[in-house]
Amino acid sequence: MQSVGITGTGSYLPENILTNADLEKIVDTKDDWIASRTGIKERHIAPKEMPVSELCYQAGLRALEDARVAPEEVDLIIVATMTPDYAFPATACLVADRLGAKKAAAFDLEAACTGFIFAIATASQFVATGMYKTVLVIGGETMSKILNWEDRSTCILFGDGAGAAVLQAVQKGFGFLSFELGSDGSGGKLLSQPAGGSKCPASLETVEKNLHTLQMEGREVYKFAVRIMGDVSVKVLEKAGLRKEDVDLFVPHQANTRIIDAAVKRLGISPDKVVINLDKYGNMSAAAIPVALDEAVKAGRLAEGDTIVMVGFGAGLTWGACVLKWTKVGLKA
Ligand code: ACO
């Protein structure tokens, strides 16, 4: 099997920023409450007319430029999203068309906030087996479009954005060393968008009852997240034959600083090795991890040979993690 790594990253955040102070004018909340319970101070919100495919296109373009790959060279595009432009066609097809990635196969993958981890695990199999040379993986969300802006317990948490990574063959010993994925559908009701699918098709009644918006049992999701983030990080490191001391950078899903702090404590990683940007972006679901990774790369926080752990959790319930030995140098075809 071929070793597979990330040879380019990119991200895109819509310009408009919604601060906690702005939210105080919309719902009964306080900046203090949001900041102390979640760590979030502001989030980016896409304009009404901007679909998620636009965010994904911008992030994908930047990742391709970073990897010095032309759109025509891309073999496959996977978009991880729970807020696609349409139920069908797939957002990935629209992004491929926008990019001019003429030979690329394209599909969407839905694993909510764990979507990017599931997508890179999937993409890496195509490269490892030699079926494809270049795969563009994008995590993008317009969470603002599925929120109930009258529900203070959820609307304060999320933001919009997209992050992308180019996966290609790399030198042996580098790239992805292990993946750990999981799901538990018995917890599906804890976090869902109940209406608009085949179980509860759209109707006047579903719209009146706000059933097309995100519904969450926050406390239960919190307990699950704290437990699973620590467990899956330990497992994925064991699989790679590494110890917590070997971790140079920890890139967790950005939902809540208290959840991240608990996972970091459990692992015993030094806080300066942890990437946190949720104060600026809120929870961007599948976009959170790739945007955090891209920012860490651009800030010079990664050197050749560094060991990265990325870990996520989300609706489904789903969870996933990977260990990556960093190099941006792809093997020549
Ligand atoms: N402003 C002020 N008060 C609020 C707000 C708000 N925005 N929201 C809730 N409250 C109130 C509640 O009404 C409650 O009041 P009560 O005690 O009088 O009933 C009180 O604050 C406490 O509410 P809790 O829900 O218990 O607050 P908690 O400390 O659990 O924090 C939070 C809530 C931040 C949502 C937390 O539970 C959490 O982070 N959960 C995990 C969420 C998550 O990570 N979701 C993403 C999953 S990833 C995906 O796939 C999308």
What does this structure look like?
The protein is α/β, with parallel strands linked by helices and 333 residues long. It has 2 domains: 4-174, 3-Layer(aba) Sandwich (Peroxisomal Thiolase, Chain A, domain 1); 176-325, Peroxisomal Thiolase, Chain A, domain 1. It has 11 helices and 13 strands. The chain has helices at 20-24, 31-38, 52-67, 91-99, 115-128, 152-155, 204-208, 218-239, 257-267, 278-281, 288-298, and strands at residues 4-12, 17-19, 42-44, 76-80, 105-109, 135-142, 160-169, 175-183, 191-192, 215-216, 249-252, 307-314, 318-325. The strands form 4 sheets. Strands 1-7-6-4-5 form a 5-stranded mixed sheet, with helices on both faces. A 4-stranded mixed sheet has the order 8-13-12-11, sandwiched between helices. Helix 4 links the parallel strand 4 and strand 5 (105-109). Helix 8 runs parallel beside helix 9. The longest helix has 22 residues, at 218-239. The protein is globular. The mean pLDDT is 97. Bound molecules: acetyl coenzyme *A. Acetyl coenzyme *A is lined by residues 29, 33-34, 37-38, 112-113, 152-153, 156, 191, 216, 218-219, 221-222, 225, 255-256, 283, 285, 314-315.
- What is the CATH architecture term of the largest domain? 3-Layer(aba) Sandwich
Average pLDDT, all residues: 97
Class by alpha and beta content: alpha/beta
The total of beta strands comes to: 13
Strand order across the biggest sheet?
Answer: 1-7-6-4-5
Bound molecules: acetyl coenzyme *A
- Strand/helix succession: EEHHEHEHEHEHEEEHEHEHHHEE
Number of domains: 2
Shape, principal axes of CA atoms: globular
* Stretches with pLDDT under 50, minimum 5 residues: none
CATH superfamily of the largest domain: Thiolase/Chalcone synthase
Q: Would you tell me which CATH topology of the largest domain applies? A: Peroxisomal Thiolase, Chain A, domain 1
Query: Under the CATH scheme, which class of the largest domain?
Result: Alpha Beta
Radius of gyration: 19 Å
The biggest beta sheet reads: 5 strands, mixed
CA(first)-CA(last) distance: 15 Å
Beta content comes to: 15-25%
* Helical run tally: 11
Q: Give the % helix.
A: 25-40%
